Recover the amino acids of this structure.
């Protein structure tokens, strides 16, 4: 006999009793479907978080971290203050999530710029060109000028991860350099030197009438061959 219930179709024995094994399978299937629904992001919630983070950027650029409030961000995002508190319980919680948002957005943009290139030379040019555009962007400059303490703290916290991402992104480039040098070069050290070179541009930017950061580093690399 077959019995339909909230956990699916359950088979009963000839005596009319449900078999425990079938019930257990149905319960596991129900739990699995519930977990799948829980893991699936709500598009409206994702869009709201995006609006909050974008509003946080604009408010921070205007008044800095110390000067901004949850109310300021809610007004900028055009949402109710209570709605914002449903996503972030405090200003500190919002800033923690905002830091993760900045890092993930940056990583996605970097991958989009570098991943299409298998050729080491093109890969290096794409990597350095991406940093040139990012570091010279109005958003990056205004962010540092409006809130230097937060920006520099972010760079310090993200530095080790940035070195690891540079090592991964430029692995084929470093392999090529090793082959040309006739010896294995330290990928980690190369990645750290490049990251420190790039971050130096944040504090002492290249004047607009001089060669870009990427072009200058490419010329330096060429001279070492």
């Amino acid at each position: 006999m077959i019995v339909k219930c909230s956990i699916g179709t359950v088979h009963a024995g000839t005596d009319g009793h449900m078999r425990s094994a079938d019930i257990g399978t149905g319960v596991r299937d129900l739990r699995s479907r519930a977990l799948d629904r829980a893991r699936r992001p709500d598009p409206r919630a994702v869009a709201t978080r995006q609006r909050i983070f974008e509003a946080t950027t604009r408010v921070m650029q205007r008044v800095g971290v110390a000067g901004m409030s949850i109310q300021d961000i809610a007004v900028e995002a055009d949402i109710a203050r209570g709605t914002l508190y449903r996503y972030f319980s405090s200003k500190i919680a919002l800033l923690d999530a905002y830091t993760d948002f900045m890092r993930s957005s940056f990583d996605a943009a970097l991958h989009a710029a570098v991943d299409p290139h298998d050729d080491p030379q093109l890969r290096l040019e794409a990597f350095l060109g991406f940093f040139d555009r990012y570091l010279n962007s109005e958003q990056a400059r205004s962010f540092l000028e409006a809130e230097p303490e937060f920006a520099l703290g972010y760079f310090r916290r993200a530095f080790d991860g940035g070195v690891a991402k540079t090592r991964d992104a430029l692995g084929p480039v470093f392999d090529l350099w090793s082959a040309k040098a006739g010896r294995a070069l330290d990928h980690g050290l190369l990645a750290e030197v490049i990251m420190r070179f790039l971050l130096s541009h944040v504090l002492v930017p290249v004047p607009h009438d001089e060669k870009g950061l990427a072009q200058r580093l490419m010329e330096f690399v060429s001279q070492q061959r």
